[in-house]
Design brief:
This protein is an alpha/beta fold. Helices cover about 55% and strands about 10% of the residues. It is built from 26 helices and 14 strands. The strands form five sheets. Strands 8-7-11-14-13 form a five-stranded mixed β-sheet. Strands 9-10-12 form a three-stranded mixed β-sheet. The chain has a two-stranded antiparallel sheet with strand order 1-6. A hairpin with a 2-residue loop joins strand 4 and strand 5. Helix 4 packs across helix 5 and helix 9 packs antiparallel against helix 10. About 40% of the residues are buried. About 5% of the residues have low confidence.
Length: about 575
Amino acid sequence: MIAKIIQMWYALIRLLQRHRLNLTVIFLYLLFTSIFTFPLFLRISTSTPLADGSGDQFQSMWLFWWFKTALLKLHTNPLYTNFIYHPQGSSLIYHLSIFLSLLALPFQYLFGTPGNSIISHNLILIFTFVFSGFGVYLLTKYLVKDSVTAFICGLLFAFCPYRLWHLNHLNLLGTEWIPFYILYLFKSVDKKSLKNFFWAGLFFILSFLSSLTYGFFLVLFSLFYLFYLLIISRKQLLDKRFIKNSSIVIFTVIIILSPLIYNLYSHKIDWQPSIEDTARYSANLAGYFLPDKERSVLGGHFLPSRLHYHGISGGELFFGYILLFFAIYTWIRFRRKKIGFWLFSSLAFFLLSFGHTIHIFANSYYFKWLPYNLLYTYVPLFRIGRTPCRFSLMVTLCLIIFSSYGLTRFFRLSITQNKNLSDVKNFLRGFLTRKGIPIVVVMLICLEFIVFPTMLIRVGIPECYEKIKNTKEEFAILELPAFCYESSLMCNLYMFYQTFHGKKVVNGYLSRPSNYSKDFLNQILSQENTTPRKISFEVDTLKLAKTNVKYILMHESDKLKQVKIEDPGCLVIEEESSRIKIIQVF
């Protein structure tokens, strides 16, 4: 027994030694994550990034809680819930990230409520940064055979403005599997082995289960790559092993994802974005080249005080001048055939990011021949999306890989590998001896992208929810204000509070709820004298009582002008110091 333990210990040591360079790189990405998200590591159990202030991170925490509750407590389908939008409920097919929810399960058992939701969110956020960078590192290293270049490319991707802008959208931060899929897609074409096809299929599934949007991006990327090979290297596609292995894996992936795909096609929603709505979330050409004034050191010091944009600006799109410099350098120094696919895919995703309309600062130009229009017309599920600007993630990734070839040549001015040194020492030596250029590049990347310090939001649970949680009977509650005229933060917080008290709520906040989800909420609340600054409601308490709604929680608000609750079946039973009035419905 002791001999086996010693043998396993030595096997573990040999494994760590064999992968020490990868472990070093992972540690460095973790270190940079702590810098770019500072002071999140110091408040990991109490706070989350504020980002755009929408509070969407609390929706992610609620989805983690619901996934655990549905599977392990209620033993029901987690893709549907009646715990929000009571009593109708809603489908979660467009919202639930199955992989991230599975990843959060162990943390929800390790830590007590409500901290488990916050810690789960923050640990997964850190995971996405580290492995998004590490995935690009492995992909770039496979293509250009230079670990220093690969590390810098991973840094450019992991901490690009798109990802830092979406700090409160955990599903959109789930970009880590994209580079792993691309890596094994390329290996599958190069080596034709079933093992590489298997890994490509696995990483596609993980990406699809993390974000439906990114799953669709990878389908498009794969089609672009196959189209490019069909023109440049048709023999690779006609190879018998390639056809056989790719067919096996594609069929297996379709079988595994078929239940989810069926649910996607069978679930109908009555909301589809108009061209005008899509235009609001399409990329502005200037945004790719100018940083956001509020979220960049460069933007804050060098941009004019007033720049007007239509669509999405540089906060989410900005390439960074370091990346643009090396992209231009690569274009000048390299033969087009070697880097042609990355240029082609960059341009394809670049055009898709404009949606129906090309914005240039405050000017907008509609073009019916833009590729987004074709997808919008002929791909039914594509119409549900309304944010063409998210294609900018793939533009950035493809441009980073494109630039890696020029970056490698630029760094090889004065260094060669020393075979007498370990791979870790060669990696560190590459940073220190190439005239200090890589270190300067890393510092400039940090200067361009870092937003320091990261604004955090700390949320506690008001005392009144303790009373609701401790009431053993089953009932629902209504929280006011209900329609989020002030911001989506309050509605997301209602869902977060539910992870503590566990009762059904009439409220809900989903970007794509089912057709019927808001019917009851609209029936019981009639709006009166609604203006952008003041809101009035009249609550139909009789209907509330019939659907087992026991409490109304009225949150004090500067914009909430009046709430009329005159039915004799209601009684104000408590006023909280947290500015929440509790009203019991009889």
